[in-house]
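Thread amino acids onto this structure.
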């Protein structure tokens, strides 16, 4: 893990974290819990959201998948087998259900290359890989179903709370 990258975020928390929270609101991203992992993002907004994160050198280091449905009952009726439960949507009239699909993660060897010297270049490269995985690669797998929405794991200091 790139300590220099995380230390830089920590030093600039007073300016970066409010921007990050504003982006979460702007794109109606729904983090599960109080931190910045499992940030459920509607598929139509994910590309723009990642682009804006990239302009602020905030890296997305992993993705999980959540099923979205208009009602808790419909989750049980869908032919998805995503019945692990989850939160009600804050922005939409529906529910999320966690899936058992594996975490897609950027290797730590790539994260180790983040530094202030090349942070912009590497954060763009990493975020592009994540975006390509969500928008193209995952959709070509047998695991893809239209009900699935990505949940982004943002690479920020663990102690950051919303």
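Threaded sequence (162 positions):
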């Amino acid at each position: 893990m790139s300590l220099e990258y995380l230390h830089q975020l920590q030093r600039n928390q007073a300016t970066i974290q409010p921007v990050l929270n504003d982006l979460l609101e702007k794109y109606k991203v729904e983090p599960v819990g109080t931190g910045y992992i499992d940030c459920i993002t509607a598929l139509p907004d994910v590309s723009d959201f990642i682009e804006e994160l990239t302009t602020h050198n905030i890296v997305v280091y992993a993705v999980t998948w959540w099923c979205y449905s208009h009602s808790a009952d419909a989750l049980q009726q869908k032919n998805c087998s995503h019945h692990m439960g989850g939160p009600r949507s804050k922005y939409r009239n529906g529910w999320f259900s966690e899936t058992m699909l594996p975490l897609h993660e950027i290797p730590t060897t790539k994260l180790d290359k983040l530094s202030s010297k090349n942070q912009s270049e590497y954060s763009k490269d990493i975020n592009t890989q994540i975006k390509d995985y969500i928008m193209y690669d995952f959709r070509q797998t047998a695991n893809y179903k239209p009900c699935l929405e990505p949940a982004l794991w943002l690479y920020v200091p663990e102690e950051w709370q919303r």
